[in-house]
Fold each of these.
Amino acid sequence: MGAWGYKALESDEGLDVVDFLQDYIQNHLDSDHLKLSEVVTAMKNRGFFGESFDEIDFFYDTSAMALAELYFMYLDTGKFYDAENEFGKVRSFTADEESLKFILRYVTDIRDEVTDADSIREIVELWRDSKSWSEWKDNLEFLIHRVEKEITNFK
């Protein structure tokens, strides 16, 4: 795990999500409107998420957290990680309830330490042993709260 901060976007795996999204915008976005549902589908197709929630992997967990961080960064600032690149093309980024529930499932499974056959949630195990455990855990709770709040907007 190469990380220089407690947020998913402050890690090598988080930057993989940033790179993917820049490539996606450059090569697949026909307008200035980005849809979370299309991003989630494209990320699934490129192996950023497992075939099911039963496939637990550090990379999948970090991908879900990084995507949530990017989405909320856009909602809060109107910008992505680096607006100088392809991200500058995006003028709106919208979500649907299903995509938000997908992300919520990932982040709550992380918090609840849902395990696989190996009985570990690698991301939790790694962060628990770090100096930034408290900050990382607070960030995870923040993401869960924000996703839940967004989902209530659909009701």
Note: The beta strands are 33-35, 92-94.
Amino acid sequence: MNTVKIAVIGLGYVGLPLARLFSTKYKTVGFDMNQARVDALMSGHDSTLEVSDELLQSAIANGFKCTVDIEEIRDCNFYVVAVPTPVDTNHNPDLTPLYVASTTVGKVISKGDIVVYESTVYPGVTEDECIPVVEKVSGLKLNIDFFAGYSPERINPGDKLHTVEKIKKVTSGSTPEIGKKVNDVYATVIAAGTHLAPTIKVAEAAKVIENSQRDINIAFVNELSKIFTLMGIDTQDVLEAASTKWNFLPFKPGLVGGHCIGVDPYYLAQCAQSYGYNPEIILAGRRMNDGMGEYVANQVVKLMLKKGIQVLNSNILILGFTFKENCPDVRNTKVIDIYRGLEEYNTNIVVYDPWANSEIAQKEYGITVFNHLYEGKFDAVVLAVAHEQFKNIDLSSLLCSSKVVFDVKGFLDKNIVDGRL
């Protein structure tokens, strides 16, 4: 183990926390193609807020280094690929970041080295898509000259309780012996323990179904919310009552965005379709969840009309824009669907989110997100993200006399809201 030198390729929400953790046991180098990102990290600050400044600065002081120079990782022998795996506008898996990262690995990998993929993929991607790129670029052959593994990421952005070392890690290898070696490396830093899967494909499948299962369960309660709203029944009250049974699963309705739950089911669906199977439940869940932003917008407008509030040119405040609470990540946020839905009614919309990077929001979505509370009176307020900062917000000072409050997250006192999922 003393001879292991690790390179983590991709320093985002997944790669950086893992690299920092590995650096507590091994000589570790973080590689990223974004110079600005690397410069910020080497100055001791992680803009994703997944690694505290204190932990990052301590790691750097103890030898951890981030770089854009490929030569800095050439003498490593254990490569970990942790790049994003998004979908395109048609919801088809986009493996471009993986191809680029595999090319990088191919340029530096040597005989006897191991490359482990952490990016979420459908079964077969590591061996059928990524490894051939490494082989072509390096001129080496899998299981003869170099070896591979797969250990799916289990990062939960914004969660300071379930950090990377506290979540059990699935591992695998291209041979049984390499599987054990990969498992041993992770086991030295993962306090929660590891689970060695029998094959890479099993590990890939395990990851992709984790988030697909959550997606389907959330889709079910989103559908329940629509049904109970039509019946005049409070969905949150129903779920609270049902949760008194020991084996009831406590899922709640809401928006399903981000780079995992809102994306991974499409990877599994495409894989199934390539084998001639049409995954009805998986895709039905995706359609349900992808439509919830527009549904919320329409519910807000209906409530305004019932109260006699003129929707045209009305002023509406949306609280929260990130894809989840207490996290700055705006990737694949479904709050934008609420915004677009309300925009169709020619309303004036203000978005307030103390966590979101306003520059990224402007670049990615073309809208203005305020990091400080906008002063003014609003005809409607939509609580879209349950940030801690919204717990004590005084809504009464922001609202007109005739107003609507809609709570997407079931976060506010139900006595002050007009509607919620």
Note: DSSP finds 13 helices and 14 strands in the chain.
